[in-house]
Each structure stands twice: as C-alpha cells, then as structure tokens.
Specification:
- The strands form four sheets. The chain has an eight-stranded mixed β-sheet with strand order 5-4-3-6-7-8-9-10, with helices on both faces. Strands 12-11-15-16-17 form a five-stranded parallel β-sheet. The chain has a two-stranded antiparallel sheet with strand order 1-2.
- The chain is globular, with a radius of gyration of 25 Å.
- A hairpin with a 5-residue loop joins strand 13 and strand 14.
- It starts with 12 loop residues before the first strand and ends with a strand.
- Helix 8 runs parallel beside helix 11.
- It has two domains: 216 residues, Rossmann fold (3-Layer(aba) Sandwich), CATH 3.40.50; 186 residues, Rossmann fold (3-Layer(aba) Sandwich).
- It has 452 residues and is α/β, with parallel strands linked by helices.
- The structure holds nicotinamide-adenine-dinucleotide.
C-alpha cells in the first residue's frame, strides 16, 4: 500500500547572517507557507516551466544551470522558451533567480533534477548529465533535503544510480536526505495541457520520501498520482512515449501499405476513427522528432539487454519510423521525376525545420535528415521556418530561414511540407507551387500534390 502522508518530523536549523540559529518549521509547514526554498537543476524545456510554476505558486526558486547564457536570461527576466514568455516573469514577482554555482544547493529545501538524458551513438542511455548533477548536489547536500529526479531515464536510475551517489559518505536515505522520482510529461507548445493540469506521477525511495515529493507537487499540480516505487514511475514515463512511437510506426507502415494500394492513409485513418471505442488515431509523417519519442523507447531496449530480453516491438517500430525520412526523399525524387526533373540542381523549398508545429526545437527533427539527404543529392535547398532562424546541417553547412512568401513558393521546383506551423496554414502560399510533397496532409489534394 502506498503510504499515507505521515506526520512530518522534519526539523533543521539554519544559521542566519546575524549568527543566530533558529529552528525552522516542519517540511510540510514550510511547503504550505511557501517558506521552503525550491531548486531546479537544468533550466531547459522541462526545468524552466517547472521553476516558473513554483515561483508563480509563491516559492522562492533558484535555478541552477551550467549554461551561463540561460542563467543570465533568467536573471534578466528574458524569455528563451515558448512556454515561458516574458510576462510570466512579472507574475513570479522576482521569486525566480538562477546561478551556475552549486553552492546554492545548501540553502534549498527541495530540488528537482531536469538535466538532459540523450542517447549515445550506439543508442545506449547517456546519463553523464544526471551523474554530474547528482555528484554536484551530493557535495552540497545538507541534512533533511529532498532531491527529486525528473529527467526521463532508464528504469532503475533513481534507486540505483542517483541513490548510490547521494548516499556516499555514509548518508542514509529517509533519514539524512529524501529521494524521489517525478517524471516530466511536458508537451512544449501545448496550449491545453501544462504543468498545472497534467497529472503528475510521483514516487519515493521510502514512504517518507514519497510523502515529501507529493507535498511539493501538490502545490502546483491539480492531480498528483503516487506509485509504489521510482522504477514504476520511470517505466510509466517510458511506456507513454513508447506507446506513441509504436502507434506512429503503425501509422507510418499504413502509409507505406496504402501507397502500394494507391489509396490515402489519412482517409483510411479518418474512416477508422469514426469507431467511437477501441481506436485512437495516429498519423503518418516524415519521421519521429524531439528528444522524447525517438529516444525514450531505447532506454527500455537497452535495459532489457541485461536481462537477455529483446524488446522486439520497440526495435521494429524504430526501423519503420527511421525509414520515413528516406521515404520522403524518394517521394521528392518521384515528384520531380514526374515533371522530367531530378533532385540534382532542383530548387527545393523545405517548410519546417522544427520537429513539430510552433516550437523552436529541432532536436532529432526528421527535417534535418531529409534536408541533409537532399543537399547530398545536389539539390539547391532553401528552407522556411519562422521558429528557426538558422540551422546547422553538419560539415560547416549552415542555412538561413527565408521568408514565407509567394515568391519563394513560385521560384521552387518543389515545395516539401514537413512541419505545419500555423504561419504556413494562415497564409497558404502553396496555391502558387508547381509541385508539392505534403508529408502532413495539410495541403488540398491536386495533381501537383504528392502525399507520402
Ligand atoms: N523537452 C521536452 O519536451 C521533454 C518532455 C518530457 C521529458 N523531458 C526530459 O526532461 C529532461 C530535460 O530535457 P530538456 O528538454 O529540458 O533539456 P534541455 O537541453 O532543454 O535543458 C537541459 C538543461 O540542463 C542543463 N545542464 C546540463 N547538465 C547540467 C548540470 N550538470 N548541472 C546543471 N545544469 C545542467 C543544460 O545546460 C540545459 O540548460 C530530459 O531527460 C528529457 O528527456 C523533456
């Protein structure tokens, strides 16, 4: 059974400037009265909105990040992420500050780690940022502090890796410090679901740890859902993203099948979606992007190798999804071929470098792979993305965003729709295109429009 919240026994002393030592209130009381100092380690897409949510809720919040530019931006109340516009700094009334110095940890009651967890080239989890953050925290950890991991990671990270680092020097979890896991579920750019109304999974290494994690998140999230162990929460987060990856792979495979049958996969999906139960529509596209869905399922595959189990569904989904950028390039070749042209020397206008609409994020974006491939085949590439001013494509190639204009569209031999930003949909200049490859089913069908 998940523990009921226990009566809190947390007391610690702080030395004030004047040298007096004062007893401080219980942990929960400090949370309830917003006296507790909250820290967020890693001020990126996941960490900054969380830091802002705590600051808006009335807590003094310290962000810790090694990136001095981000730290400066926070201290100057400058926005660098779509989900944290400048006006939110005003709402936080100066309660959010940032530093590169881990010494700040010593002053905190509760801190959350939101550092990156990428994959290595061989698709094994690269946890060096989590290890570095945990080690830096460990150096400054003081009695009674709560540490929460929020980064998406392989099952076992909290209870094996992070716990091990924080227990160095004889510290004991549940007595000297508290540790939990609360996975990040943020969907950058989502206008409906944010930190407050996305239910939060929480778990603790001990019952006392869980009670504290829950108390912290209940101040900013409407629905906090406790699970029995950190590994359950870690795995639930991975399963959510794997569910998406596998279902998108199914939709992508449907597109490849329908292409051979000469019918529209989107029409098939719309028809299937009229069933009011037991079907959830997913759609084909140019490939997976972002730092979650293409990455996260591999954490499971990697961990399972240790158990001699091959996660076949995940591996198959990966193969299908990874094929989509190549399929798009072949589609462009087919489209150009139909008008007696080759990719070589064709002027191609790529629409969208971000991996999804109305965000800046180009991490793992299939647009990068498709553009690199088209360049390698000799295309004269121009791209338009109002959210991405420049893009590096390796080997010193950097392209600049061109304006979204009728002229650019008219001049292109082929327009390739990859990311349907609102700016494109609001001004449908593609009316003037000679040839279009539409990977998102947003352009009205016509003889010159090729679907994937
Ligand atoms: N971006 C998303 O939409 C999203 C969604 C769900 C989960 N997540 C997960 O959240 C975690 C963070 O992702 P993100 O998108 O916010 O990453 P990010 O790259 O946007 O930000 C991470 C920040 O951590 C900082 N950092 C790195 N090492 C550090 C260290 N040792 N100490 C202090 N700061 C350090 C970096 O400078 C950077 O500012 C990842 O595990 C990711 O998988 C992200």
């Amino acid at each position: 059974m998940i523990a009921d919240r226990k009566a809190d026994r947390y007391t610690r002393s702080v030395s004030e400037d004047r040298g007096a030592t004062v007893a401080v209130a219980s942990f929960e009381e400090r949370i309830a009265t917003r006296q507790a100092r909250v820290g967020i380690v890693g001020l990126g897409y996941a960490g900054l909105p969380l830091a802002m949510a705590f600051a808006e809720a009335g807590f003094p919040v310290t962000g810790i990040d090694l990136n001095a530019e981000r730290v400066q931006a926070v201290n100057d109340s400058r926005s660098y992420l779509v989900d944290v516009p400048e006006e939110r700094y005003a709402a936080a009334e100066g309660r959010l500050s940032a530093t590169c110095d881990y010494a700040a940890v010593g002053e905190l009651d509760a801190l959350t780690i939101c550092v990156p967890t990428p994959l290595s080239k061989t698709r094994s989890p690269d946890v060096k940022y989590v290890v570095a953050a945990a080690e830096s925290i460990s150096e400054h950890l003081s009695s009674g502090q709560l540490v929460m991991l929020q980064s998406t990671t392989y099952p076992g990270t909290t209870e094996e890796l992070v716990l091990d680092i924080l227990q160095r020097g004889g510290r004991q979890v549940g007595r000297d410090f508290f540790l939990g896991y609360a996975p990040e579920r943020v969907d950058p750019g989502n206008r409906v679901y944010d930190v407050h109304n996305t239910p939060k999974l929480v778990a603790g290494v001990t019952d006392e740890c869980l009670a504290r994690v829950r108390a912290v998140y209940e101040t900013i999230v409407d629905d906090v859902v406790a699970v029995r162990r950190p590994m359950v929460a870690e795995m639930a987060k991975l399963h959510e993203n794997t569910f998406r990856a596998v279902n998108i792979a199914l939709a992508n495979e449907l597109a490849l099948i329908c292409d051979r049958l000469g019918i529209s996969a989107w029409e098939v999906i719309d028809a299937a979606a009229t069933k009011p139960f037991a079907f959830m529509p997913h759609h084909p596209g140019p490939g997976l992007g972002g730092d979650c869905i293409p990455v996260v399922p591999h954490f499971i595959s990697w961990r399972m190798r240790e158990y001699g189990y091959s996660a076949r569904m995940i591996d198959t989904a990966h193969e299908i999804n990874a094929q989509m950028p190549v399929h798009v390039v072949h589609r462009v070749a087919d489209a150009l071929n139909s008008v007696g042209r080759a990719i070589n020397r064709a002027r191609i206008l790529v629409l969208g470098m971000a991996y999804k609409p109305d965000v800046h994020d180009t991490r793992e974006s299939p647009s990068l792979i498709i553009t690199q491939d088209l360049l390698a085949r000799g295309a004269d590439i121009r791209y338009c993305d109002p959210w991405v001013p420049t893009v590096g494509l390796g080997q010193g190639t950097v392209l600049e965003n061109v304006g979204w204009t009728e002229e650019e569209v008219r001049e292109a031999d082929c327009v390739v729709m990859l990311t349907p930003h609102r700016a494109f949909l609001d001004q449908p200049h593609w009316r003037h295109a000679r040839l279009i490859v539409d990977t998102r089913n947003v352009i009205p069908v016509g003889d010159h429009v090729w679907s994937i």
